[in-house]
Amino acid sequence: MGRHGENIRKRSDGRWEARYMAYDEGKGGKICRSVYGHTYEEAKAKRAAASGMSAFLIKTGNVSAQDADGLQGIAFGTAALEWLAAVRSEHKQSTFEKYNFIYHNYLETPFSGIMLWQVTEKIVRDRLASCGAASESLQKSIYGVLNGILRYAAGRYHATLPEIKRPSVKAQRKEAGTFTRSEQTKLLSVLCANTDRFKLGVLLCLFTGLRLGELCALKWTDIDFANKTLSIKRTVQRLYAEDAGTKTALMETSPKSGNSKREIPLQDAMIALLSDHRNGKAYVFGGDKPLDPRTMQNRYKKILKEAGVSYKNFHTLRHTYATNHIEGGTDIKSLSEMLGHSSVKITLNYYAHPSMDTKRMYADDLCRFYARLHGQVAGRAG
Known about the structure:
Number of domains: 4
Radius of gyration: 31 Å
Strand content: 5-15%
Helix content: 40-55%
Distance between the termini: 119 Å
CATH superfamily of the largest domain: Intergrase catalytic core
Number of helices: 15
CATH class of the largest domain: Mainly Alpha
Order of helices and strands: EEEHHHHHHHHHEEEEEHHHHHH
Shape: elongated
CATH topology of the largest domain: hpI Integrase, Chain A
Strand order of the largest sheet: 1-2-3
């Protein structure tokens, strides 16, 4: 029995049918469509969503009427969980954990109750207004996950969905810091005295430019003592783990990228130091399991304090390694491969920064040049 004036009726099969007018792109006009529910309230709610979507489509042209059929009743959250399931089956565990953390902490609540067809740049700006204070890197991750969900949904439901642009932010890129020559002298004096596994780890980073995760995941089998090379095959990091009892868990994964899998030459001095610390354990610094990066960072801070060097983050060792190579005349291509970069541009833009000592040397060279030039002029004048 129908409800008077509402165009909602109960069918003979027991379902409720609610009719509404929609725009048909092929016919170029309005047509009657229907939605169904097991109860009157369900059918009415579905019609409200569908008819609202139809009006939205006609007004904005966000997606086509044909696409609307595929998106009808699909919530953003539903598509997001389906996308995360796909990421989990197709990508590294670390990638899934990162995306899962971003979605549940920055997108799930703001987009609760939002349908896929309602996602526009205005809605996103309004819902993510609080993210404006987040770092540029975090904002990139949030919008990356958001657009990943929309791209997945477009393919899954055969619809066209917008690519949401991240608001432009004028951010000054911070140059990578390095240890000065005097700081390196102080640091080396401490590292080479009573060298334990933690001091050895810091030394190895200065001599090879390893990332913290690569260092902590290093196995003795990765070191070829005969050919004096070091192979990077894995990394370890703390990630937000969905199934872990604690908030984070230590996970060993493949390196950051394909280029990160690399072979690095080792110096005779480093080979000798590593040989002195060989044992029957699997991992060079962690024993029977990878070393927790947090443990290495804590010991690193103590080493800096012992050396009388102001704190700089662990990655500064890698920056210093790269800068020393540049100042020593190493060609960029070789350095880029040893660092595991995908291009030499990354090496030049982010890691190779001449120190103040080097700049002063160039300034002194220029001064001596002018002095010689002045002497020649004075000699001719005399």
